[in-house]
Structures are given as structure tokens and as C-alpha cells.
Specification:
Blueprint (H helix, E strand, L loop, with lengths): L2 H13 L1 H7 L1 H8 L2 E5 L3 H10 L3 E5 L19 H4 L4 H12 L4 E4 L9 H4 L4 E4 L10 H7 L12 H16 L11 H14 L9 H9 L7 H6 L8 E5 L4 E5 L7
Parallel strand pairs: 1-2, 1-4, 2-3
Antiparallel strand pairs: 5-6
Helix pairs in contact: 2-3, 4-6, 9-10, 9-11
Length: 258
């Protein structure tokens, strides 16, 4: 290791000293070598990834910044002269570089469906946010979502069933993730009745209020840091967060016979 490498290592050790004491040097070493891809901008998600000290973060989100995004993404500057004409990924990239200069932050243009397997193999973790159900072409997701509702544990969070109804509605109507509005609620409730009948599930397991909440506000939180650092429980789970009561729930959705 030459002098420059030693100096860089000393800087990183000093910067991440608190994290090293919290979860250990090995976990931090894994984080410092990780390359992460995030599709769909969520401010808190990418902020935590950058602050954790990964090697690089690549952002994909070609949506042009709009004024309403201020309320859901604190990384977007309030000055229209700054955000005008730029994509969400570009604006978030500019802000994130200031959060942690040690992390390489890049912007990749293009739609998720246009990249091949070789592109995704460049990353240790891929986080996909705000995409349609068909776009979630992932082995475990398919296996988990194929489990009949009546075979799931009785104490499973009702948010899981509500989420499945919303995703099925988006798929049927050709909506992008997050586009379902209050005006669609009658159709969502009708689909709930249909799905509950097909799955032999009592409708009380999918309260209307839960569907109303998902239509008006949706939040995603991936345990990215836990995955990279290999600290904590395995990722064989779904995480649900109810913004109304500020409670998070982790559920194991899997085929018990597999």
C-alpha cells in the first residue's frame, strides 16, 4: 500500500469511526467495497447509502424534476433555476456528492427494461423503487408473491394484502407505480372483493382504510445497509411501514413447503 492509499484509508477510518464501533470493521470493509444501483429516487434511501460509506452509488431516474417532488425528496433544491430541466437523478447526484465526498456518485440514463444482465452484474445490490409489478422480475419475489393468501400465517400484516390489491390494480389498468389516485378507489375496492373471493380470504383481512392509505401515501424502505454489511437478519422478508401510526413491520412471505 503506497502513501496515498494509506492516507485515504486513514481518512475513511476517521470518517466512519462511529459506524466501525457500531457494527465492526469487517462490516464497514464490506460496505466500502460495495457498488449500489438505485432505480427511482427516494431521498432517505440514497442518503443513508451514501452516508454508510459504499464505494459507489449509481442513480437511474430520467423523470424531469417537478415542483411537487419537493415535498417527498429533500435532495431536490428549492430554486427553480437549479432544478429546471434536470432529471431527478441528476439533482439527487449533485446533492449526494456534498453529503459524502468519499463516495463516487454517478447518473445512468435509460429505462430499467433496457439494461441487460451484464449491466446489473456490475453491482452488489440493486434497489428498485416505484416500478410496476411486471418489472419486478426477480426469483424470490415471484416465489413469495405466488403463495396463496390462505396459506400465509394468520397474524400476517394486513398491509401485505392491501399492497397486493394495489399492485394488481396497477397491472390491470396499466398504471405506473404510485399513479393510482383517490379517483381510482372505487375500482380498487371492487378488485379487493374479487381477489378475496378468488383467494378464499375474508374481506376483513383487507380493510378499506388500508387501501385508502396506500392510494394517498406509499413509502418503501430497503434494508440495503444490512444486506451489504451482512449484519442482522436475512433478507427473506417484506418490510411494511404505516406512515399514519409510524410503525414498521417485517413479515416473512414464503412457501413453507419450499
Amino acid at each position: 500500500m503506497d502513501g496515498d492509499d494509506e492516507e485515504l484509508m486513514a481518512q475513511k477510518t476517521a470518517l466512519y469511526d462511529r459506524q466501525i464501533r457500531a457494527w465492526g470493521a469487517d462490516a464497514q470493509r464490506r460496505l466500502s467495497k460495495a457498488h449500489v444501483l438505485v432505480y427511482g429516487m427516494k431521498g432517505t434511501i440514497v442518503e443513508n447509502i451514501v452516508l454508510s460509506g459504499v464505494e459507489s452509488l449509481t442513480l437511474i431516474d430520467d423523470r424531469i424534476a417537478f415542483e411537487e417532488a419537493f415535498s417527498s425528496n429533500f435532495l431536490i433544491p428549492l430554486d427553480e433555476n437549479v432544478y429546471g430541466g434536470k432529471t431527478l437523478a441528476q439533482l439527487c447526484c449533485d446533492s449526494l456528492k456534498k453529503f459524502n465526498p468519499m463516495v463516487h456518485v454517478y447518473v445512468q440514463k435509460g429505462d430499467l427494461s433496457t439494461f441487460d444482465v451484464g449491466f446489473f452484474n456490475n453491482f452488489d445490490v440493486v434497489v428498485v423503487s416505484s416500478c410496476s409489478l411486471p418489472a419486478k422480475d426477480y426469483k424470490y419475489s415471484k416465489e413469495a408473491l405466488s403463495v396463496p393468501w390462505r396459506e400465509l400465517p394468520r397474524k400476517i400484516s394486513k398491509l401485505y394484502f392491501a399492497m397486493r390489491v394495489i399492485e394488481k390494480f396497477e397491472e390491470a389498468e396499466g398504471c405506473s407505480a404510485g399513479e393510482v389516485s383517490v379517483a381510482d378507489l372505487p375500482g380498487v375496492l371492487k378488485l379487493k372483493k374479487q381477489l378475496c373471493a378468488e383467494q378464499s380470504l375474508n374481506e376483513s383481512h383487507v380493510p378499506d382504510i388500508f387501501l385508502e392509505r396506500l392510494v394517498t401515501s406509499r413509502l418503501e424502505f430497503p434494508p440495503v445497509i444490512k444486506a451489504i454489511s451482512e449484519k442482522g437478519d436475512p433478507l427473506k422478508n417484506f418490510f411494511f411501514f404505516d406512515a399514519f401510526d409510524m410503525k414498521g413491520i417485517i413479515e416473512n412471505i414464503s412457501n413453507s413447503n419450499a
